[in-house]
Amino acid sequence: MLDVALGLGLSAGETSAMARRADSLLGADWQQTHARASVPEGITLLFPMNDLFERYVAVQLRRALAGSGLEVVAQGGLLYCLEPWNGEGGYSHATRPDILVRREGGEVLCVIDTKWKPLAKGIAQADVYQMMAYARLYRCGRLILLYPAAPGEVGRRLTPRALAKGPERLDIARLNLSGGLDTVPQQLGDILGEALGARSGRVRRNCRKPH
């Protein structure tokens, strides 16, 4: 350790800190979740769960829709909320919906926004505003807010809601992640199938195919 520290040109204080960190890793102290006076320094390992949940859902939804003629686009769209008026101003406030489900020709059938947070306190007002903007910009009549189911809770679609003054429908759904990962594509296929209504049979049959 001293040879490495000298090779890096570290000071005595930096060398001591590096030695403690190495001892913590080798001693598996980084796995402890409690604090100890004898070990004032520790390691925090954090994951961006919002991003991970979004990407996981996109991958599993592609599995569910393989061969259906529907395309799953993650972080796509990029339509702008604001644009020039009578030739003045520019384009701004780009949108990036978490997931777009569209036909191969480009028609958007459903916008899905994933939320890695509990649904117990209800839907955030900002999330509703966001989905209303997506409905207009992407000319999409079916939208889904997707949350992880709480431990012990069965994943299910809640009562759909209509967006005021329009024909669009917003579904609030929970995805059960504790019932076995193999069930996730089928759950997503069922949720999407219910949201799309008349096309649900095709989507559901497809998500049951072996991959």
Provide a brief overview of the structure.
The chain has 211 residues and is of the alpha/beta class. It has helices spanning 2-8, 12-26, 49-65, 125-137, 184-196, 200-207, and strands at residues 70-74, 80-82, 92-94, 99-103, 108-114, 142-148, 161-162, 169-175. 35% of the residues lie in helices and 18% in strands.
Please describe what this structure looks like:
- The chain is 35% helix and 18% strand.
- It has 211 residues and is an alpha/beta fold.
- It has 2 domains: 1-45, no CATH class; 49-207, tt1808, chain A (Alpha-Beta Complex), CATH 3.90.1570.
- The strands form 2 sheets. The chain has a 6-stranded mixed sheet, sandwiched between helices. Strands 2-3 form a two-stranded antiparallel sheet.
- The protein is extended, with a radius of gyration of 24 Å.
